[in-house]
Amino acid sequence: MELLNWLRLVLCLGLGLGAAWGNELKITFWMEPVQRAEFDTDMAVVLKELEALQMGTTVVDSVVQLTHSHDVDMENFCEILGSVGSHVIVDLSYSRWSLGLELARAHGIPYVRLDRILRPFLDMFGDFMRLKRANNVAMIFQNPRDTMEAMKHLVGGYPFRTLILDGSKLDTDDFVQRLAVLRPSPTYFAIFARASPMNGLFERVQMGKLFQRPAEWHFIFLDTRDRVFKYKRQAEHATRFTLNARAICRSMQMRDLYCGSGFTLQRALLLDIIRSLIDGAYANRDFPEPVYLDCNASTEVGTEPRIDHSLWMENVHWSNFVSGVPALSEESEPQERNQKEMEQEQQPEEEEGEELLTFVANISAGYYSNEHEAKTDLAVWTAGQMRLLNETISPSRRFFRIGTAESVPWSYYRRHPQTDELVRTKSGAPIWEGYCIDFIARLAEKLNFGYEIVAPRQGHMGERNEDGEWDGVIGDLVSGETDFAVAALKMYSEREEVVDFLPPYYEQTGISIVMRKPMRRTSLFKFMTVLRVEVWVSIVAALIGTALMIWFMDKYSPYSSRNNRDAYPYECRQFTLRESFWFALTSFTPQGGGEAPKAVSGRLLVAAYWLFVVLMLATFTANLAAFLTVERMQTPVQSLEQLARQSRINYTVVRDSDTHHYFMNMKFAEDTLYRMWKEMALNVSRDFRKFRIWDYPIKEQYGHILLSINSSQPVLNAKEGFANVDAHGNADYAFIHDSAEIKYEVTRNCNLTEVGEVFAEQPYAVAVQQGSHLGDELSFTILELQKERFFEELRAKYWNQSNSRNCPLSEDQEGITLESLGGVFIATLFGLILAMVTLGFEIMYYQKKQKSLSLITQVKPMENQESSKIAWLKTADNDYGLNKDKDRANKKKEGKAKKTNKLTPPPTFDAAMFRGKKMPASITLGDGQFKPRLRDPINVRREPYSGYME
Question: I need a surface site. Which of 73, 316, 518, 744 has the fewest CB within 10 A?
């Protein structure tokens, strides 16, 4: 610092003399074509600033725009040396021009090389991304010059995969369009620009809907005007990198105002370097002379002593704003490199320690937030080192695009239950549900990543066309549209050629058959269908015939109780027509028909009839049980083989599905085997007896199945297939599909049932790109979830058998229903109603009959027995209403008797009983008192009021 102050003092003392001398400092700049526009603008401003600083020296700048053509570049350089001359060469180019450097050093022209302006920013950003463990980054730059510098920085290498984009191109090669279609999508994004262009670039990013996750975006400001950025609120949680304007101005020994509006790093670096060169020139004893050179003049080596014009550079001291960095091991231009290889020349020793001049960067890293900046600062970049502040820099949440396809219950769109319309989010995106969606959410929770579910634009799970290209979920995975796929993907060998499968998350699924449950025709009189109509008619005829025969035999048999009263002095059953029919009918009941006929002929008839009744009841009971059992166990088909052998039931599959391809492949295998067998059997020359068979040894069923499927027209999707099955109530339609989806649909639809066993079983697995770094991480997580029984929970959730409780129970689950045997109760109710009606008729008939009876209202007591209170009814001349004329006459006589009030005494017992006939010797008259008859304990006739008169 003392030496620098002394130089400043000497410079101030010599300002007047220097101004009078009018010294010129001629500087030759080497640069790339992309640097020219920015350089001209900055250099014009720097010359004005130098005039304002009154340095006392006129700066004459010359530019050699390198075209990397040996002849053209050398011609331009020689022209400048021959006409203008040069004190010093300042190299701004991205690659060293070796031939020009050799010429300058040969004639002692000082050489200063500046580093790329973006190198500190790129180094800082690379270290920051290393702390975040980034693997791919998209970097957007404001102009072609910065884009070229970023490309040149690739020589040193980035610690991540990078995509470099030029943000200045609008029409062609727009970075927004490229990023929108880029697959896989970058993990992080970075925009390198000054504050004003940063606003425009961010607006384009928002219009392209790329700014979805702020934590993945980084804004690197290349000037000190970061406060001009007007989208801080929209960019909340995004990372920002800003320059410390005050530290820059202090290191340049300039006022703070200089680092405000219009400040650029290249302008500040040129100003500070030129000031240091002017100070070094004045610190020399004599102001150095420019070097002039005629490149066309031929001089022999060693004829003239070499003059070193670069000694004055020893007096040049750079400010605190400028520092030296080691040069990268860069290559020269291709033609020069080839020339060196041919000549096998080695680099001079002084080039090994070459340093590049750059600015001292003081960059702060933080994120946008409403909180105070002290809380949002993350790190500071100073002296080429990253220093962390409040917290450690942790990786942002990763984001993946996960492929899936609609397949119930694995992954499907949420729909309105009434209108069947898609339910969408506020942004208009459909909402996914299903087994795989829950699986993805659990993976994201355990591995801490964000995700977007991507459905294939073409195809379903993935099929390969004739050109070998894949569509569907597999196609998106192969093309990089998705990072990995979680769907109902089966592990096929042809798919394993283009993607990698992880451990299965669903062990075994296959193909199954679904049909509608047979709609049993319910009938209240189902028990009547056990026997045919002619059988029931025959039973009724047998009952009627038996009743008539019993009546006939009882009436005309001399040994019946009716005709043989001496053999049966007690009361016996009189088999009238009514009693005969009642006996025949009640014989069908367990209670029996009651008292049987007394004649042997009648008893033989009854015994035969009872045998008939026993056999018919046993037959009916056995057939009813068998009928109900067989009806409940009835299933149209039990397996795929039975389905193939029958012709009543139509069946189909989803067009171009895995199931459809399975049957096509099996038919192809059958045809191939048959062709091989035919050729082998027909062309055999030895042991022909082994092929002497009459039947083809392999069943050819898949060809017939595929023919039936094509004739039934394959459906477009599984939803249509299940709807067709449900519509066929007579169970004459079957749908062959994925067994897991069928099981899910059966739990939701009470009318469906799964038939047969599952065949063609294969597992479902997650697929990743071949060689993807996600394979091991996802595989380990899947195994952990298996240990946690997570997949069993999902299986219980989506194949919940408890849903079937809402279904009405069938007869095989709850027994015979009332609908099947309701006719029995109806018959009983009908009998009850008939009995009530009959009772009504009986009451009416009895009342009518009672009205026709003539009752004695007044009687004269018996003379010899005053205590007797028995009244005698006058019934001698009463025919109980059978003769109406007599009734009228009797009524007239009774009327006359009432008028005369004459009392007629009751007749004596013998007179009333025998009416003048001789009383039998077996009858003994008593005392006129009623006494109950003693009952025989063996032959008891149960008559409630039995007695005799004494």
Answer: 518
